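Table S2 (continued). Query chain:
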Amino acid sequence: MFAAATAAILVALSLAITRAIRGPTVFDRVLAGNSVGTLAIMLLAVTGFLTGRPEFLDIGLTYGLLNLISTLAVLKFFRHGDLAYAADDEQRS
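Corresponding output:
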């Protein structure tokens, strides 16, 4: 059962990587990158369960937090062109 889940996750991972490469816009690529991160977390969890190593779940949680922060940073960079952009800067102009 878990081998079938692993195969399904790998198929979804390959489709997400294809979308990341061929995405027509930057936001499609960012969304595909976020999906790749989510699928990698799922693959870590299934692999940890199959091998009997629960520390893979801790690695997956850490990777999930990094995935969220990096996705927000990339979206902010593409929207404003600078990571140091503050909302007050727009109101002062």
